[in-house]
User: What shape does this take?
Amino acid sequence: KNEVEQSPQNLTAQEGEFITINCSYSVGISALHWLQQHPGGGIVSLFMLSSGKKKHGRLIATINIQEKHSSLHITASHPRDSAVYICAVNSGAQKLVFGQGTRLTINP
Amino acid sequence: KAGVTQTPRYLIKTRGQQVTLSCSPISGHRSVSWYQQTPGQGLQFLFEYFSETQRNKGNFPGRFSGRQFSNSRSEMNVSTLELGDSALYLCASSSLGGNEQFFGPGTRLTVL
Assistant: This one.
């Protein structure tokens, strides 16, 4: 079993829909990261959080430490949000452990 | 500030050769981490350097090595290349290990 599990693996939605991507982890962590990767490979860090909730524009990330679960929400989704979203955790000695990613496609 | 840069961006090698990849972190960042991304295994941690010292190492064979220079620039080396080493190699820098990481564009290595 992977230490970091994401669901769903693939998600297709229509423009304007509310999107939720989930991440569960099985190890103790010091922080959790949400990353975005566009075709071509470049990775952008969206959020780093260790408790509570963070918001940036249309993106919201939450984490529940007791339940070892985090969610990434996108409100009013847009085709430019189409990308792979990756959850990663800082686990023991600070190295990052990654989920397998969620491929999001937003159709106009 | 300039972002993280990686050179070269694309590389084609043959089995048995060796390769050196370079990463220049954001100015002032002292931590550099390297990652391998393949379709089958996803993103995997290779190693982390901080102030010229390797602090963490992932589960990769000894053919994978790295170093960091006094200006925080880092190189990774893969010797005796295998077909399975074909991947996107990403480096990321942060001001301190464990903090928000800033990723470079990656080097896409193809081993023939």
